[in-house]
Design goal:
- With 77 residues, the protein is an alpha+beta fold.
- Helices cover 26% and strands 19% of the residues.
- The protein has a two-stranded antiparallel sheet.
- β1 and β2 form a beta hairpin.
- The longest helix has 11 residues.
Length: 77
């Protein structure tokens, strides 16, 4: 029914689902999806909730996000 947050981790046996939440992705990922798809996902969600036509698509552009993780301890995760 609308955007959701979905995360996978690529491990030795392939991708594994690690998160699924009924909300839009965080700001960096949200902007990336909007640019790559050519759709403003917030506008799309509001249009669907109000039973209105989907907004027009824009030309898609390349985009990427980056996530850096750090730990205060060593060990295996």
């Amino acid at each position: 029914q609308g955007p959701f947050h979905l995360e996978f981790v690529l491990g030795p046996s392939g991708p594994r689902l690690v998160a699924l939440a009924p909300r839009p992705a965080d700001a960096g990922a949200h902007a990336c999806v909007d640019q790559v798809s050519g759709v403003d996902t917030a506008d799309l969600l509001v249009a669907r909730l109000l039973d209105r036509p989907a907004p027009a698509r824009r030309p898609a552009v390349a985009a990427s996000t980056q996530l850096l993780l750090g730990s205060h301890a060593t060990g295996r995760v």
